[in-house]
Each structure stands twice: as C-alpha cells, then as structure tokens.
C-alpha cells in the first residue's frame, strides 16, 4: 500500500475543498481508510473514516455535516469533501489505511500513512 494525499490549498472561510487519497497497490479495496489532521503545535487528530465497502463512516463531531468521506475502489481512491470550511480546519491532512477494513477513529489501528497535504483556511 502506497498512499498519496493531494488536493489541499488555500481557501477562504466558508469555501470548499476536496481531498483525494490514492493508492497504487492492488488491495486498497480491503482497507478501511481514515483522514487525520495536524495543526501546528497540536496532536494529530482523527477527522473521518470509511470502511472498506464504503458502507460505514465515522466523523469527528466538529466536522460532521460539513465534511463527507467517500471512496471509489475501482479507482483506488478515497475522497474527503470539505464544505463550510473554518479557520480552525487549517492543518496538514493525512490519509491512512487500516487492515481492519473498518472505519476506525483511533490512529493506532492504522498501518499505512501517506504524506500530508496542507489545507489553509483564511478568515
């Protein structure tokens, strides 16, 4: 599993971005995938996760209703649609894959990590 996260950028508060997490391997469809973020001086925190089939999802309370996680296993890609962005969403966003296949919120259950992509929300 080799994950690549991309799609970050600079956006005004209230705007939208869509992050993508792509895998070059052939077993992506069996992994649960999560998005995490890390702001300067803070711990890495869970944002959203999706099960291997896409039937299960989990969100951080502060992003529920604004962010949507989805996946297209045919394209080996997981997406994070972020709407209604706030300045507190500014962080480096990472995607990770879990062999549990589930939408888990604890980073300890993730086995593979991609490089981060920076999201900056200006107020």
Give helix % range.
under 10%
Structural class: mainly beta
Gap between N and C termini, in Å?
37 Å
Order of helices and strands: EEEEEEEEEEE
Could you describe the largest sheet, including whether it forms a barrel?
7 strands, mixed
How would you state the average pLDDT, rounded?
96
Number of contiguous helices: 0
Radius of gyration: 13 Å
Beta strand %: over 45%
Task: Detail the poorly predicted runs.
Answer: none
- What's the oligomerization state? single chain
Write the layout of secondary structure elements.
Elements: E1 3-6, E2 9-12, E3 17-23, E4 32-38, E5 45-50, E6 57-59, E7 67-72, E8 77-82, E9 91-98, E10 112-113, E11 117-122
Parallel strand pairs: 2-11
Antiparallel strand pairs: 1-3, 3-8, 4-5, 4-9, 5-6, 7-8, 9-10, 9-11
Characterization of the model:
It contains no helices and eleven strands. The protein is mostly beta strands. A hairpin with a 6-residue loop joins strand 4 and strand 5. Helix content is 0%, strand content 48%. Strands 2, 4, 5, 6, 9, 10 and 11 form a seven-stranded mixed sheet that branches. It is globular and about 40 Å long.
